[in-house]
Amino acid sequence: MPDSGIRAVLRAPHVPLVLAASQVGRLPLASAPLALLIFARQQHSLALAGLVVAVFTAGIAVGAPLLARLVDRRRQPPVLWASALFSAFGFVLVAYGGHRLPVTLLGAAIAGLGIPPLEACLRALWPALVPPSLVPAAYTLDIAVQEVIFVVGPLITLAAVGLAGPAAGLLAAAALQLAGVAAFVTAPAVRDWHGVATHRHWAGPLRIRQFAIMVLGVVCMGAAVGSLPVALTGYAEAAGNRSLTGWLLAAQAGGALVGGLLYTRASPGDVRRLPMLAAVFAVLYLPLLTTPGPALIAVLVAISGLALPPLLTAVFLAADRLAPTGTAVEAFAWIMTAFTVGSALGAALTGPLTETHLRYGFLLAPAAGLLAVLAMTTVSRNHTPAEAPR
Asked: What is the mean pLDDT of the chain?
């Protein structure tokens, strides 16, 4: 692999530390929903347990841009420490709240609101960690490696629950993000990073029309990705093997990892690349409508994941170009919030579709992908040449 790709990024000072620490601190994004579901299911119905997870997810969606705005105005370590401790308190509140639903919901909301914005912080750091020519490869590597979180996170929860009971899954999530933050803030680049002193509009980067449209496109991307676990669950149940869902989702994560690693070789391009990548993203979901046998659908699911990291890389590069000065971290957080909201919407809409007919469940992903293409095309057509990523 050429030096301009993964190896060159990983050889840069402090990159292995911040990348690994960020991944550890972000593990609760994948482990906590399952931990909350298992814990709440002990005393409550599946519907109420799902509500607990939804409250946690909503907390992330609300908290991420607010915490990122604080980072933009100040520094990373104080915000990361405060948010991690606040979130850990939420997990502990759920674990020792006696299964009282109001306490559980409050704790889940606090845990979500306080999730440290490590992803946005790291993406704002890349220009300080690697040369400008390597920033796109760094974004892609970060996005690709993040897929490991969604494979390892649930396994950590299951191991903790198996060893010490349902509350242990929640405490493990709290410990992971505290450990990740503790390691992340030791990097000199993190300690030295400062927000830019500038006048900030109350709407932040959302006041830029192109950016706002792109955020809507990311909601559609999230809906496509979020629909797949529900559709695959329906597929697995129809096949008479519920455990098949986990293997199929792991296949998608593997495909995304491969797609991301391959894309580190590509040139960064500009905003005009967004429609093409979004179109590939949408088209790769179409073969799933054939609902073939388990072996073939595993291959098709893996293929459907290939285009996600390249498209997200292009989105983050565009966000860096479009965001007003001093709002980079908040811009990245809005992208992640949009993806999270879209994922929740996709899951909610796919449930009834899958119950009506299995193929209808797989139809939402390419349909949402088409809407993402329209949004990205609008952004691209309104594009005016701008400076390189900051």
From this structure: 86
